[in-house]
């Protein structure tokens, strides 16, 4: 089932018009216009699910100026706590982010929502430079519990259309 949502996000980031239109079908005109910017500045998106190296995420979005490993999560609940395997994935994303000077992202899709159902979060990585450093100040990190442990809260993420407008503006 998760593969379906990975393919959905892959089509959007790859700038496939049909994929962008499908994800924004129930969005307002402004959100649709923001999301359609990716058609002009698409990414090469490689799916690494199952066979990917630990820490590489489910998708790898590549473009001449940017590269993001992306971990895709979906749920019917607005909050998703990391534990067990998901905690290990998070730790591996931190390790690879530091090692390769990348900014890993989480794309969290809330099922059953009209409008933009995707939210984007960044994994906090020290030592980023250039464009990634500038973007890191604009993309929200995973929020933290009272005990300081990161988790996904759909309500606190960046809308996918706003993320696309941010990374695809000229």
Short description:
With 170 residues, the protein is an alpha+beta fold.
Provide an overview of this structure:
The chain is of the alpha+beta class. It has seven helices and eight strands. It has helices at residues 2-13, 17-23, 29-35, 37-40, 85-100, 130-136, 160-168, and strands spanning 44-47, 59-63, 66-75, 79-81, 105-110, 118-122, 151-153, 158-159. The strands form two sheets. The protein has a six-stranded mixed β-sheet. A two-stranded antiparallel sheet has the order 4-7. A hairpin with a 2-residue loop joins strand 2 and strand 3 (66-75). Helix 3 (29-35) packs across helix 7. The mean pLDDT is 92.
Topology of helices and strands:
Blueprint: H1 2-13, H2 17-23, H3 29-35, H4 37-40, E1 44-47, E2 59-63, E3 66-75, E4 79-81, H5 85-100, E5 105-110, E6 118-122, H6 130-136, E7 151-153, E8 158-159, H7 160-168
Parallel strand pairs: 3-5
Antiparallel strand pairs: 1-2, 2-3, 4-7, 5-6, 6-8
CA(first)-CA(last) distance: 35 Å
- The rounded Rg comes to 15 Å
Element string (H = helix, E = strand): HHHHEEEEHEEHEEH
Task: Tell me about the largest β-sheet.
Answer: 6 strands, mixed
List keywords for this structure.
170 residues, alpha+beta, 6-stranded mixed sheet, two-stranded antiparallel ribbon, 8 strands
